[in-house]
Structure formats: structure tokens, C-alpha cells
């Protein structure tokens, strides 16, 4: 018997069974390429995929010094992870191991709140990710234009953006394992010059410079948006959890080490940059670390930092595209998108999802840096609010469901943990400009209309969808007591 739509069935029952059938046993008879032979992502590449989903190095943190000065910039990258990054990473570890499959937060929200809100979550997060990814080819060229002036604008720049997008998209097509190990290599290249810069700068450090602050001259909107943009997207890795080797153990471990790597990757360069030279806040803008490197070590170090920045943008592009494309695959497996989105290439990658995401990147690459950051933050905030609600609902509605990793807090403690990041979301939304708010709300409205339209298309059978209908409730695994399943 040819079994179809097993991916959708697996989504609804994370404990491994659907109608008495173990999905691990029927996986081999799915349609399409045999993904069980595709190499899974191990812990080290996963750490660097998370690193590039969230950070990519200190490139882009310069605006925090421009907005608030050295002291608040340094404190921000030490304190903000406790307010936002750690709670988001913990939720990702718990729900990602509870639902170890492609689709990530779409699966979580669908299981907690239903497929309508799951689709809205997927739409907002995918659009936010594509907007974010539109930055990286542009930033890559910005770091190279000082050495290649032709890349500053006009037709050469347009051709370069398209060529770079095509080349990096092809890398995603070739396989997630390749992307993961490329991320490891690019991560080492991106961080090594800052280690060297720190060693060279030791005689020039003046600790008193770190304490400079003027609370009356702080651009709070720029400051918070910069911190938020550089320390979010921890949940993005969840959309490709199905491609991870032993995700129930690997994912929490990788999130822990990636968190340490991200915080150090921001704090150490800021500490060196603000302590080794006199701080002129007006000079602190994107790309300023290359100027700092030139002052501290000379032209050779400046060129190294510029090259590292370019490589970092490549790493962020391929990691983000992997997350975005596997999210579309996961949504198609759940019947939220037409079935052709779930097709895999012979390398096990979501071919249609990659092409769709690449097209979005090209269409949005004309936006300015500030508009991109503000717009993606706005959409991301709405998605996180839905995610928080889904997390609490799953805790309350299915307290005994299997959780291979569980946040070491009760339900009440988990809700209290979410209060600071929720307050932060409200502040970020309130500080958005009218233009960004209008465009973002328009994008959200598109999602509210798009879901019933796709449902209509499905009912009319104009396009083929994997599965239609509501998701069944989560089931408690048959083996062991409920208490033993809490983890």
C-alpha cells in the first residue's frame, strides 16, 4: 500500500504515532526522494547555523554606540540576552524537541491555536525572514565598494546583487549539510580578525572610555531596534529541525553554545572598539569596525575585517534562506500551502521554497537598511506574541505531553519569564514610525486574506494540497506515565 501525506500525520502527533502507526516505520514509503538517506545536520554545524540566524558577528552593532554611547551599548548586549534571547532560546528548545520536524513555530502555533493562526504565524515570520535576507547581498557589496568603486551603484551593483543571490541560492539547493559546514568555516573567518584586533589593542585600552554615557542624548528607537535586530531570530532554526541529527538532544545543546558564541561575538569587539580609541558617536555606523581596525592595527587588519564582514553576510544569507525555505516545506506538509512547496530536490532541499524565497529577496533588495530593520522587527514582534500565546497554551492544555527538553520552570514561572520580552515587544511596536507601521499592518492584512483564499482554492481543488481539515489534539504517548513524559 502506498501511504501518502505521512508528513502531515507526523506533524499532529509529535510523540511518534498516528492512528496506531509509528511514523518512523512508514517514513520510507513517502512520495518523493528518500530523505532518510540525506545526511543530517550535526551539533557543530547547527551551532553556526543558529549563530548566523541570529548574529553573524559584530557587524551591525555599531549603531548601538551611535544611539546611546559606550556604556549603554555594552550593557545592552549583556542585559538584553536575559530579557529576550534566553527566553526565546528556551522556548525554541522546549517546543523544537516536542515537535522535531520541519515547520517549527508554524507547527507549534497550529497545534495550540489551530491552522488559521499557524498560517498567520508562518506568513509573518516568512515575510520577516525574507525582508531580513534582502539586507545581506547589499551589505556584502557595501563592505567591498571601498576597494571596488564600481559596486557603489548603477548597473554593476545591480548585476552583482543578482549574481550573488543566485550563487548563494545554489548553495542552499545543494544541501543543508553543505550550508552548515560552510557556516562553520565562515564563522571562523568572521570572528578571527576580532581576536587578533583584541590582542593588538591591549596596550591602547582605556577602561574609562567604557563608562561614557549621556542619558539626555539617547536615541531610544535606534538603540532598541539595533539590540532587538541583533539578538532575535532564535526560533528560526526550528523550521528545519526535521533535518537535524537526533534533534531532541542536539537542538538544546546547540542553542546553549550558540547563545554564548553570539553574546561574546558582540561584546568583545564592542569592548575593544570603545576602549582602544576615542569614541565619536557620529562615526559609529555600519562598517565602522573596519576603520577601528585600521586605527588599531593598520591597513592589513582593516582589509581583513572588511573581508570578514563580507563573508559574514554570506553566512547570514544562506542560513536565513535555509530557514525560510524549510518553513514553506513544513507548511505545505501540513496542507497550508499547495503541495508543490513540499517537493524536494535530489539533495533533499525544498526546491520551490528556495526559489520562492530568493525571488522575495530580489524584489525587496531596493529598500533602505533602516526601513528593512524596522519593518522586519514589526512583523517579527507580532509573530512572537502569537508564539508566546501558543507556548503557554500548550503548557496548560497538554501538561503531560512528552517534552524531551523542558524549561525548568512551572507554567506560572514560564508566564512570568515572558513578561519582560512581551513588554519589550510593546515598546518596539510603539516606537515604530507611521510609515513602517502602515506597511507592516498592510502585510499582516494580506496574510489574513490569503489564508481563506488558499482554503477556497483547496476546496475547489484548483491546486493540490497535501491534507485538508482541522488538526487532531495532541496525544500522550502510550508508554510510561504522564509524569515521566514531562521530562
Task: Give your account of this protein's structure.
This protein is mainly α. The chain has one domain: Amino acid/polyamine transporter I, CATH 1.20.1740. Helices cover 67% and strands 1% of the residues. The chain is built from 18 helices and two strands. The protein has helices spanning 6-12, 23-26, 43-54, 62-98, 105-113, 115-133, 135-144, 154-173, 176-201, 220-230, 247-276, 288-297, 299-333, 351-364, 369-397, 411-430, 434-460, 482-485; strands at residues 17-18, 21-22. The chain has a two-stranded antiparallel ribbon with strand order 1-2. Helix 4 crosses helix 10 (220-230) and helix 9 (176-201) runs parallel beside helix 11. The chain is globular. The protein starts with 5 loop residues before the first helix and ends with a helix. The model is unreliable at 1-36, 468-473 and 475-487 (pLDDT under 50).
